[in-house]
Design a protein that fits this description.
The structure is a single chain. 52% of the residues lie in helices and 19% in strands. The chain is an alpha+beta fold. β1 and β2 form a beta hairpin. The longest helix has 48 residues.
Length: 426
């Protein structure tokens, strides 16, 4: 469905853009043809009736045309007429330009890649083209020869001006599409999450469907982000500030949605994965966590510690590693500027091994204690996708798969301490 929406959107914008190009071509052809015929009519009149101008009949016609266009600004934001003659190996412009060389017209070499529409007109051809004008800007142009005076006339408009409303429309519709898809995904999984918990025989089918849907949504989301990034980098100069901001918003929303889908996939896989219970050396797990987070810990001067003689317990090694990773990462993300210590601890009871991760950061509001392990509930004042409860929901899921539970308590002086109990009867 997502792919279909994006394809329909792209096709619609493309069709509208091509229609606008064709309509603009028709207007330019009509305009340049009428101008050429008008100039030829003036030239014929002067040829018959003008016998007094000292510089000749052709020059009289050129003076009249130049004078008639001297007060004409052009059309649209960038549209203009250009009139030229070929002298030796150069294109000489006769009407003042609307742009950078208004009063000191610069000739263009005949073999230059610039002024391609005018080169076609001076070669005796008529038609339309998308090519470079005398400035090197890509333009949509209609060109026509003026046979009576051996001149060429071009009516042109910057292609960027034609494209701009369609780029804006594409960005706006893209933003709306990302928003709708994100809301749809969030609502879908929030509604189906209770089913994933309660259904037994049919739950593998529901989870498989949810995982497939999330996976299928990820690819077009990444594609939308990449295409918008490319648009921003290649055509950013065609956009105004609002257009560039829209690009940034689409990229940011797409990245957030991709992250959300990745969290959903991880959560579903955690529920689907068959655990492999084995002897796990907790000291080795701690060393892996310490190595993985070494760079941010050193950069922020945070000490990560654990007891010297951690035991060997029976558990799923990768699942336990994910728990410790999530809890340490949680402390680093939300512990605040004053965080300077994270402690991994171990105790036991008759029935459970109990792991803990404690930090001395900003802590968690007491009203959040009961909900931070619930999916889609936000804790630690976070409004990002990372604050939607995926990490701690995964911790709770893994704890339950090990016959235990997860919970948290406030630190004695500061911060928060998370606990994970693991049954000794696995």
């Amino acid at each position: 469905m997502t792919v279909i929406v994006l394809i329909v959107e792209a096709v619609t914008v493309t069709i509208l853009y091509q229609t606008a190009i064709n309509q603009q071509k028709s207007r330019l052809i009509e305009t340049v043809d009428s101008q050429a015929r008008f100039i030829e009519a003036v030239a014929r009149f002067n040829k018959i009736y003008n016998t007094t101008f000292p510089l000749g009949k052709k020059e009289a016609t050129l003076r009249q045309i130049i004078d008639a266009h001297s007060m004409y600004r052009g059309f649209g934001e960038t549209g203009e007429f250009t009139l030229s003659v070929k002298k030796k190996d150069q294109i000489i412009f006769l009407l003042s330009h609307r742009h950078y060389d208004r009063n000191q017209l610069k000739p263009v070499p005949w073999d230059s890649p610039l002024a391609e529409p005018m080169r076609q007109a001076l070669s005796g051809r008529s038609g339309t083209i998308i090519g470079l004008d005398y400035r090197g800007e890509k333009v949509l142009a209609a060109y026509e020869p003026v046979a009576e005076l051996n001149l060429g006339i071009v009516a042109k408009i910057d292609l960027a001006e034609v494209r701009q409303p369609f780029i804006r429309a594409g960005l706006l519709s893209g933003s709306v599409a990302v928003l709708i898809i994100t809301i749809g995904v969030a609502l879908f999984f929030k509604i189906t999450n209770p089913l994933l918990k309660n259904l037994e025989e049919k739950s593998e089918q529901v989870k498989r469907f949810a995982y497939t849907m999330a996976h299928d949504l990820k690819n077009p989301t990444i594609a939308l982000c990449g295409l918008t990034n490319r648009l921003r980098n290649k055509h950013g100069h065609l956009l105004d500030e609002k257009g560039r901001e829209s690009c940034d918003q689409i990229i940011n929303s797409s990245e957030q949605m991709a992250a959300l889908i990745e969290h959903i996939n991880t959560y579903i896989l955690t529920q689907k994965k068959l655990l492999k219970f084995e002897e796990v050396k907790l000291t080795e797990l701690f060393q892996e966590i310490q190595y993985e987070f070494n760079t941010p810990l050193m950069h922020r001067r945070i000490a990560l510690t654990a007891p010297a003689n951690l035991p060997v317990i029976k558990a799923d090694r990768l699942a336990l590693l994910r728990v410790l990773r999530n809890l340490v990462q949680n402390a680093l993300k939300y512990g605040g500027e004053g965080l300077d210590e994270i402690k991994i601890g171990y105790t036991e009871s008759d029935r459970f091994h109990i792991l803990s991760v404690k930090d001395n950061g900003v802590g968690i509001p007491e009203e959040d204690y009961d909900k931070i392990f619930v999916l889609w509930e936000q804790g630690r004042n976070s409004s990002s996708t990372e604050g939607l409860g995926f990490g701690l929901a995964i911790v709770q899921e893994i704890a339950e798969q090990h016959g235990g539970k997860a919970w948290c308590e406030p630190g004695k002086h500061a911060g928060v301490e998370f606990f994970l109990s693991i049954s000794k009867r696995l």
